[in-house]
């Protein structure tokens, strides 16, 4: 399912891969700070980031990357 969503986003937006990378990295940073993580918590932060990214990509009202709730992390 994730692959199909990703391919759809790539077909609609030329910079989808770059934007998704940036969103994911900012989301990881946000999770890290929220969880007050240390080096030893890296795997937990990665899992939490992946789960959040998957949840957002599977939202029914997401037609473009700009519709993702975490897209606003790029604006800050």
UniProtKB/TrEMBL annotation:
Residues 1-57 form the ELMO domain. It holds the Pfam family ELMO_CED12. PANTHER family: ELMO_CED-12 FAMILY PROTEIN, ENGULFMENT AND CELL MOTILITY. This is ELMO domain-containing protein. The lineage of its organism: Eukaryota, Viridiplantae, Streptophyta, Embryophyta, Tracheophyta.
């Amino acid at each position: 399912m994730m692959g199909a969503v990703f391919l759809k986003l790539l077909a609609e937006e030329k910079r989808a891969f770059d934007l998704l990378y940036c969103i994911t990295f900012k989301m990881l940073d946000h999770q890290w700070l929220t969880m007050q993580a240390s080096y030893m918590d890296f795997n937990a932060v990665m899992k939490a980031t992946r789960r959040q990214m998957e949840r957002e990509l599977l939202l029914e009202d997401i037609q473009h990357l700009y519709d993702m709730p975490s897209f606003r992390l790029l604006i800050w």
